[in-house]
Write a structure and sequence with these properties.
The protein has about 300 residues and is an alpha/beta fold. It has three domains: about 40 residues, no CATH class; about 150 residues, Rossmann fold (3-Layer(aba) Sandwich), CATH 3.40.50; about 50 residues, no CATH class. It is built from eight helices and eleven strands. The strands form two sheets. It has an eight-stranded mixed β-sheet with strand order 4-7-6-5-8-9-11-10. A hairpin with a 5-residue loop joins strand 2 and strand 3. The longest helix is centred in the last third of the chain and has 25 residues.
Length: about 300
């Protein structure tokens, strides 16, 4: 099938193995330097998944504090009081919510492109295009509706290509999350926005590797150079709900699975209420309860202006 990508997208493509320019012809992409060839799937997607092993080196600084001296407020995400995009009466797609949607950036011009990393069935395309971006969906799974097949560890794009990157429920499925975060940072433009979610106390699912705590999310972002705005636990997707729906009662309807653990959830809330009554410490607070019993975290980060890899 014919490759169907706009010129804007073709112009930002690069060899995922060596990072050099590509020549696209005869429904395939060929690296102009290493000569690796990337053919198309039966859906017309260019398959940029690595053909051979790639050695990646990361550098970490140890012996320093993870969190800033003033600390970091890992609180539940409230709706942005000054959203850039109006999503009133817009249907919220799967794995998103109104609070996270309210932080979506608005495209600053017709040339702005965004990447939906791990896009699956491209359910987020509508909300991204509504914000004014040209949408690029990438996924590793060749059964997906992605525009491009690729590996989060070796993204097939030039440096500083995207104004906005979305990564919803993907990071836990990445074998080496620090490498993916470095790649995301590399292909994001200075001042570009990264918004995403990651599993915490969900069951193992879909070959998940690392389920991130709040400190794990902060560490992955910080180690890659991001300026972190929000790392927020979900107050509605609790460990009990996640385990019931995804692990304890698979194939049962979500509402019925939730109902089965509801008595335990209510006892859990009562127990914490009693604890907060007898103690005023942070460890007895509602904020602490949510942080340590959530099923997932959302995060919002920015690539600082003028920062280079």
């Amino acid at each position: 099938m014919e490759i169907k990508l706009s010129k804007k997208i073709i112009d930002i493509l690069a060899c995922p193995y060596c990072g050099n320019p590509l020549k696209i012809a005869d429904n395939q992409a060929i690296c102009t330097v290493c000569q690796d060839k990337y053919t198309t799937s039966n859906k017309g997607q260019i398959d940029f998944r690595l053909r051979r092993g790639k050695t990646v080196q990361l550098q970490f600084e140890v012996g320093t504090n993870l969190l800033p001296e003033k600390g970091f407020d890992f609180k539940v995400l409230n709706k942005n009081p000054f959203p850039e995009v109006d999503y009133t009466n817009f249907k919220v797609p799967s794995h998103l919510n109104n609070e996270l949607l309210s932080y979506f950036p608005k495209a600053k011009g017709q040339e702005c492109i965004m990447l939906d990393l791990g896009c699956g069935t491209t359910v987020h395309k509508g909300v991204c295009e509504h914000a004014g971006f040209e949408y690029v969906g990438l996924d590793y799974d060749n059964s997906s509706d992605a525009y491009i097949l690729g590996d989060g560890h070796a993204l097939p794009f030039k440096d500083n290509s995207f104004d906005f990157i979305l990564s919803i429920a993907v990071l836990e499925h990445i074998q080496n999350p620090f490498i993916m975060m470095k790649e995301v940072y590399r292909v994001l433009k200075p001042e570009g926005k990264l918004i995403g979610t990651v599993a915490f106390m969900e069951p193992f699912h879909g070959n998940s590797f690392y389920h991130h705590s709040h400190l794990g999310v902060f560490n992955s972002l910080s180690s890659s150079g991001f300026e972190i705005e929000k790392v927020a636990p979900s107050a509605t997707w609790s460990v009990l709900k996640a385990q019931a729906i995804m692990g304890l009662f698979p194939r049962l309807s979500r509402s019925l699975a939730h109902l089965l653990v509801l008595p335990l959830y209510l006892l859990h809330r009562i127990w914490w209420k009693l604890g907060s009554y007898f103690s005023n410490s942070y460890r007895s607070s509602e904020k602490y309860r949510i942080l340590y019993s959530t099923g997932s975290f959302s995060f919002i980060a920015t690539k600082g202006e003028g920062k280079k890899q």
